[in-house]
Design brief:
354 residues, alpha/beta, Alpha/beta knot, 2 domains, eight-stranded mixed beta sheet, two-stranded antiparallel ribbon, 13 helices
Length: 354
C-alpha cells in the first residue's frame, strides 16, 4: 500500500463500522416511531414530505449537517469512489486475469536435478509442502464480489490457504487491487487467484465447472451456516462490505446462509464472517465425505512449482529439491489437526436467526 494510505483506510474502516451500527439502530428506531404514529395511515402529501423534512432538521446536527453540505457540493451524477485505486486497473480490452503458483514459479531453464542418496533425509521444507499438498482441495472455492477494502480480501486469501483451499476468485470493476502482504503473509504464493472485471464472468466460469453457489446474506430464505445444503463442488461467496450482495450474485445463488448472532451486533466484518464460514463448511464437507483432494496431475503441477519456490532462488538448493520430484518425501505431521480416526462433527447452533 502506498505510504500514508494505511492510516487513511484504517480511519475510514473504523468509522464505517460505527456509522453502520448507528444507522442500523436509527433505522430500527424510525420503524418503531412510524408504527407508534401510524405513518402508514397518513395521506399522500404527508408521506411524500417526510424525507425532505428529515433533511431540513438534520442540517444543524453534528456530523450529519457537514455531510449534507458535502453532498451538495458533489455533482449529483458523480459516483462516490475511493480517491485513489491502489492496484493494476483493467485495460480497455481486459476482463479477466489469473495468477497461479506455476506461473509465479516457472521451471528454471538449464537447472539439473540432483536425486537424493539412499540414506539422505528429506528437507523439512519439502515435507511441509507434502503436508499441504495432501490436504489441498478444489471442492470448495471462494468468490469475493466487489470488496472495497483490500485488507479484507487479503485476510480471506490467508484463511483460504490455511484451510487447504486452492482457489480464490475476486470480482472487482476497477482492476486487480494490491494485496497487503502484512496480512496475507505471502499465502497468495501457494494459491490460484482469479480476478474478473464483473461477477457475471466469474459465475459463468464456475457454473460451467459444476459448482453450487452459496452466498452469505441475511435474506429471508437464508439458512444457518450449520444447515445450509452443500454439494461436492461449492462456491462460498461474499458481497461488498458497503453495498452488500450484488443483484447478479443474488440471482445466481443456489442458496443463502447466515451466521446466527446472540449479541447486539447483527453482522460481522466480511473477513471474520469468511473465516468462520469457511472453517465451518470445510469441517462439514470433511465429515459428510464431500471434500475430495486435488487430482494427481494437479498435485504434481503444484509440487514442481512449490519446490522451486521453496528454494528461494538458490540454484544448488533448487537442484536438490527437484531431485525429490520422482519420489516425494512423506508429509510432515499435521499441525494440531484432529486425528484422522476421530470423526469431526459440526456443533449444533444454540442460536436462532435474528
Amino acid at each position: 500500500m502506498r505510504r500514508g494510505w494505511g492510516r487513511w483506510r484504517g480511519y475510514m474502516d473504523e468509522l464505517e463500522v460505527v456509522m453502520r451500527q448507528a444507522a442500523e439502530r436509527l433505522s430500527e428506531a424510525e420503524a418503531l416511531i412510524a408504527e407508534a404514529w401510524e405513518r402508514g395511515a397518513w395521506h399522500t402529501r404527508q408521506r411524500e414530505s417526510v424525507e425532505s423534512e428529515i433533511l431540513r432538521r438534520v442540517q444543524d446536527m453534528p456530523f450529519l449537517g457537514p455531510l449534507m453540505e458535502a453532498a451538495r457540493r458533489l455533482d449529483g451524477a458523480e459516483r462516490l469512489e475511493p480517491p485513489d485505486f491502489i492496484g493494476r486497473p483493467w485495460t480497455e480490452d481486459e476482463s479477466m486475469s489469473a495468477l497461479a503458483s506455476p506461473t509465479r514459479f516457472p521451471e528454471r531453464p538449464g537447472l539439473e536435478a540432483s536425486p537424493p542418496g539412499p540414506e539422505q533425509a528429506p528437507p523439512a521444507r519439502l515435507r511441509a509442502a507434502e503436508r499441504a499438498l495432501a490436504e489441498r482441495s478444489r471442492s470448495m472455492v471462494v468468490l469475493l464480489d466487489d470488496l472495497v477494502n483490500p485488507r479484507n480480501a487479503s485476510a480471506v486469501i490467508r484463511t483460504s490457504e490455511a484451510l487447504g483451499m486452492q482457489e480464490v476468485h475476486i470480482a472487482q470493476a476497477e482492476g486487480r487491487a494490491d494485496l497487503e502482504r502484512t496480512v496475507t503473509m505471502l499465502a497468495e504464493r501457494w494459491l490460484d487467484l482469479f480476478w474478473y472485471r464483473d461477477v457475471e464472468a466469474a459465475i459463468a466460469g464456475l457454473r460451467e465447472r459444476g459448482y453450487r453457489i452459496l452466498v452469505s446474506d441475511y435474506s429471508a430464505s437464508a439458512e444457518p451456516l450449520e444447515h445450509v445444503p452443500l454439494g461436492e463442488k461449492v462456491v462460498v461467496a461474499f458481497g461488498s462490505e458497503q453495498r452488500g450482495v450484488s443483484p447478479a450474485l443474488r440471482a445466481a445463488a443456489d442458496g443463502f446462509f447466515f451466521l446466527p448472532s446472540a449479541g447486539f451486533t447483527s453482522y460481522l466484518n466480511v473477513s471474520v464472517m469468511a473465516g468462520v464460514s469457511l472453517y465451518t463448511l470445510d469441517r462439514r464437507m470433511r465429515a459428510e465425505g464431500l471434500r475430495t483432494p486435488i487430482a494427481d496431475d494437479d498435485r504434481a503441477r503444484l509440487r514442481r512449482a512449490w519446490y522451486s519456490a521453496l528454494a528461494k532462488g538458490d540454484d544448488r538448493r533448487a537442484g536438490e529439491f527437484m531431485g525429490w520430484l520422482d519420489s516425494p518425501p512423506d508429509p510432515a505431521p499435521p499441525r494440531g489437526a484432529p486425528s484422522s480416526s476421530r470423526p469431526v462433527s459440526p456443533p449444533e447452533s444454540p442460536f436462532r436467526k435474528v
